[in-house]
Amino acid sequence: MSHETPAAERPLTTALAEAAATAGHAPSVHNSQPWRWRVLPDALELRVVRDPKLTATDPEGRLLAYSCGAALHHARVALTAEGWTAVVERMPDPTDRDLLARLTGMARAEADPEAMRLVQCMQVRHTDRRPVSEEPVPTAALGEIASAVAAEGCQLQFLDRDNVLELAAVASRAASVEAEDSQLREELEYWTSRAGTGTGLPPEVLPAEAPQTTVPARDFGRPGTLPVGPGHDRAAVYGLLYGDEDEPDSWLRAGEALSAAWLTATRLGISVVPLSGVVEVAGTRQTLRGLLAGLGYPYLVIRLGLADPAHAGPPHTPRMEAAQVVDTSAVRSPDA
Ligand SMILES: Cc1cc2nc3c(=O)[nH]c(=O)nc-3n(C[C@H](O)[C@H](O)[C@H](O)COP(=O)(O)O)c2cc1C
């Protein structure tokens, strides 16, 4: 028999701390986990930490905001699953740009089964950089993923054959620009040699050799140990996540939309890999804007496909301990 307190009786601050800890499963650029949470008696605050080892990769903090946005969406869904509603204020303090969100006005609601299902998806979602299988992605699934993005105020455009070929050219241009940038190479070296810290990318999740893909994947500068097999991901679908504005609060929303898309894809058995090199380089980001033909600003490219069912995928990428990212000191009783 379980001795856990039923969710309905658990104090709000426990639910907030648990939601913040659950958000630790979110994806982040180079697994940097740039989010820090503070639990208050009636609020939850999300801050970004700007790691100096991402200065060349992400000078504007766009990828950091996407990553924190993904964590924000995870926390929102976790609260909904526990039967709480919250008001989300994004970038609530113009004098404190690192305070990305504040969740307030928590009220009781019915626990939401769809949100519960997505919380389960958080535990299994991961980045699988192997080529996808030959099996096509069902059109209905693409529709569901695009709807999940739209519900977060962004759009997802699936690229046709011509646009995929253009994206391939843009991605290889971005890769050459990045390969020539020594500071950027140093940053990659840092994030791929973080064993034991709970951050960064261990060799087990990086391909042992460059996978055969239509659009070049990120070159992490060193081979990993993940076997990729001979497949070519011809059946992959590429989507361009975009929106109306190109400002820090829209980047946060882009991250929320990325999380919504990725968790929905996970529920449908579809693998997602973000390709952010093309938006890290200003010139190639501008070219992507052309692909959108005036519809909006590009945030991120994602590859969708069915993972190779015949071989085991990569293991989970490590995470920091919850205590390192969730500050509960404001709600802890002095003798606790
Ligand atoms: C904003 C953002 C950009 C990313 N860019 C890339 C990328 O260009 N190539 C790649 O292989 N993975 C990329 N990723 C995936 C992360 O490396 C991955 O989420 C992180 O290492 C944690 O691993 P997990 O997704 O398996 O939990 C990106 C993730 C985010 C959130």
UniProtKB/TrEMBL annotation:
**What is the protein name for this chain?**
Nitroreductase
Enumerate the InterPro entries for this protein: Nitroreductase-like (IPR000415), Nitroreductase/BluB (IPR050627)
Ranges annotated as spanning the membrane: none
Signal peptide position in this chain? none
Q: Which Gene3D superfamilies match?
A: NADH Oxidase
Q: From which organism does this entry originate?
A: Micromonospora reichwaldensis
